[in-house]
Amino acid sequence: MTYRIGIFNTENEAIEAVQALENAGFTQHELKIITKDRDHSRRIERETNVHADEMTDLMLTRAAADDHDNNDLGVAAPVPVSGLNMGVFGGVAFPSIGIWTAAAAAYDSDSTIESALVDIGLDAGDASACRDALARGAILIAADMGDNQLADGPDLSVGGTAEAVFRDNGAARIL
Fold first, then answer.
1. Among 63, 116, 167, 170, which residue's CB has the most CB atoms within a 10 Å radius?
2. Which helix (H) or strand (E) holds 65?
3. Average pLDDT rounded to a whole number, residues 155-174
4. Element containing residue 139 per DSSP (H, E)
5. Which InterPro entries does the protein's record reference (predicted)?
6. Sheet harboring 79-80: ordered strands across?
């Protein structure tokens, strides 16, 4: 899978870009939206009906996998223990606040952030630029180009279409 990524500075630009991508023929399943945190994703999800991944959630998952040397990233979600302000993680109970502390520490690690971005399918070569954009609050929209490796548009390819939509909707940068 190859993605063309548009980096947007405002929610309005991102929403308009998602709507334009859908009008150009992209489906919700061919789009990834990545934001810094939940505060940056609520409105976009509400107005586009496309799920947005929050970097804080991705970091929790990645940090948990790294800390516990577990390749099954599905264990990263804390599960409440009945009646206590505790969570269960990898079979170990811990105070629920600990998972957020771990996320904050992990968010400071450039390599962990980049690994989390690669884990969801972004190219390793784009991870650093995406990390920096997310850190300053930008919104990433990744359009799946399938197996189209030659999509360096502007052209008639899927990548060319995505790039044209990103440019028309104010992308600060296109990867």
1. 116
2. helix 55-68
3. 86
4. strand 139-144
5. GSP17M-like_dom (IPR025889)
6. 79-80, 86-89, 92-95
